[in-house]
Design brief:
Elements lengths: L4 H6 L1 H4 L5 H10 L1 E5 L5 H11 L3 E5 L24 H12 L4 E5 L8 H5 L4 E4 L4 H14 L2 E8 L2 E7 L7 H4 L12 H4 L5 H18 L8 E6 L4 E6 L21 H4 L10 E3 L1 H9 L6 E4 L15 E2 L18 E4 L4 H12 L5 E4 L2 H9 L3
Parallel strand pairs: 1-2, 1-4, 2-3, 4-5, 9-13, 10-11, 10-12, 12-13
Antiparallel strand pairs: 5-6, 6-7, 7-8
Length: 373
Amino acid sequence: MLLTAHELERYRRHIILPELGHEGQLKLKQASVLIIGTGGLGSPVAMYLAASGVGHIGLVDFDVVDLSNLQRQIIHRTSFVGQQKTWSASEALREINPHVRLSVFDHPLNRNNALEIIQQFDIICDGTDNFATRYLINDACVLAGKFNVFGSIRQFEGQVSVFGSPDGPCYRCLFPEPPEPGTVPSCAEAGVLGVLPGVIGTLQATEVIKQITGIGAPLVGRLLKYDALAMHFGEVKFRKDPDCACCGDSPSITELVDYEAFCGAQQQWGHAEEVSAAELLQLISDSTNQLTLIDVRAPFELLEGEIEGAINIPMDDIPDRMNDIPKEGPVVVFCHLGMRSRHVINFLKKEGFSNLINLTGGIAAWQALTDNP
């Protein structure tokens, strides 16, 4: 495999770098990278790797482009709202570099397909936003012997590291157990500065290029931390854990497991009950129910819609307004997507409440039901 005259011109600024050169550019052309998630992190990763000349790029995503994505997911366009994200991303990448071969996986990554997909690529780039998938990717990469270039973002902060090297640590060495469910809200719940994934995703792309070409010092055993508000980079060093359940001397994880259960998605919040939007609608229509609705969103979020009769107690005000919440009769707590409300329920249970019900999917699920009966 050689570089064509057109490629030599396209990648000229790479090739004149002594550390990279013609040989490094050829390595990029021969490489394959799987990008899991085409959202905030996956956008800059995919765009820069395509522009850099990575020969084969795989995209994993089962979501569609939403208007709220466009504040940070720069690979997608307004005209593509409602379209499959993998299709939208592919269209953008073909415009950036028609030499790149694309493979699209427009379905969720899970324990049944992860190894089969990951084994097709040299390097894996984790652009996901939930713990279950992060542990799944980590374990699959260790089992398949693949590098895992990790990134995460939240509000104004981000992290980058490289897991899965033969002698280096994996994600479980740094985080052996997932956080308690609900203690780390998603970007949809906590918000994220639009440019933040651009910074973190670009750093991930840099690490991928370094791994492919063999230049520089990779972020193996180092967690790079970025604070956008302070404009500060920090670093945490960590080592391979010989007792790690996945990559240790005697690993207990020899096959992919149930990651939803591992991260507590099925049991989270203990005995706290859940109610779907359809079930809540039925409860409200039944006049015999003395139901209390507590909306824990911030006041400005109420402009997006409300459930009639709900009491607004923002999550931050809950400790000071517990007396406004009855301890008898069913109390349904909700937020935008259901994460903050679960966190509130967990807190209130410790304060003696036993009558709380979480609205699964939050008001977003309610509006999807009631706006489209």
